Amino acid sequence: MSDKTSNLITFSLIGGTMLFGTINTVAMKVTFSTDGKNMFGGIEAFEKPWWSTFLMFIGEALCLPAYFIMKFYENKYKKDDKQLHQSPTGSMGYTRFILIVLLLSTCDLLSSTLSGISMLYCPASITQMLRGFLIVFVLFTGRIFLKRIPQMFHVFGVVMVIVGLILVGLTAMLNTSGENSAVGQIFIGIALNLAGQAVSSIQMIIEEKIMKGTDSIPPLFLAGFEGVCGTLLCVCVFFPALYFIPGNDHGSQENFINAAYMFAKNPLICGLMCLYTLSVAVFNFI
């Protein structure tokens, strides 16, 4: 493969991640602002960040069949390649692999939900720009856990991101026309988003360690398994817990039964959430 073709593929992948990352942010924000009929016969906005996280995991889980389809065709045309017949978990084994993936799925669940909740408090444009602050957290977590010493251009980039974050935060607060409640909401949204980025940085460092380690886990296989484990965590742990914890969603912190009803009975909400799920799947695939 020539350098020109390689560069074209690289820039195409970067453009794809930017495009589909923007689509899933916008789709989620628009969905949160969309009204629909609930299971009680009333009309309410679909402000369901935990349900959105559940659909995100379904999108990630779609990477698993994609991995096995690609593996099937590789086995079909490269039968003599010994690496194709090795376990995707390497020497790690499935038990240890699943435990690590459960940890990664928990980090993914917390970071995505915190980012989703932040959209209830500030515009999607702000939350999308704040994603760049992930660079700062990854720099620090990489230094702590991987003992990786940053170069000067890394430090310069981080300083630029911090300056940008400050400008974004100031702009958002100045545009609230001095309303204290609105400023407070923007501040809460930014804080929640940054907390999500901090958790996400830990997840990325763990993923990097196991994908570049001696076991070399295939990225598509890892993303798919994270989706499966995250889906099970939502269904078996978080949905029941949030249902029984008192809150403003018809007596629950988040009523997943009502969320499922609104998802099934409102075509616009269903369409937006399906677009979100598909964008997550493609984002992780590329």
UniProtKB/TrEMBL annotation:
InterPro entries: EmrE-like (IPR037185), SLC35_F1/F2/F6 (IPR009262). This is EamA-like transporter family protein. Its main location: membrane. The keyword Transmembrane applies. Keywords: Membrane, Transmembrane, Transmembrane helix, Transport. GO terms for molecular function: transmembrane transporter activity. It comes from Hexamita inflata. It is a multi-pass membrane protein. The keyword Transmembrane helix applies. SUPFAM superfamilies: Multidrug resistance efflux transporter EmrE. It holds the Pfam family SLC35F. GO terms for cellular component: membrane. Belongs to the SLC35F solute transporter family. It is found in: Membrane. The chain crosses the membrane at residues 7-30, 50-73, 94-117, 129-146, 153-174, 186-206, 218-246, 266-285.
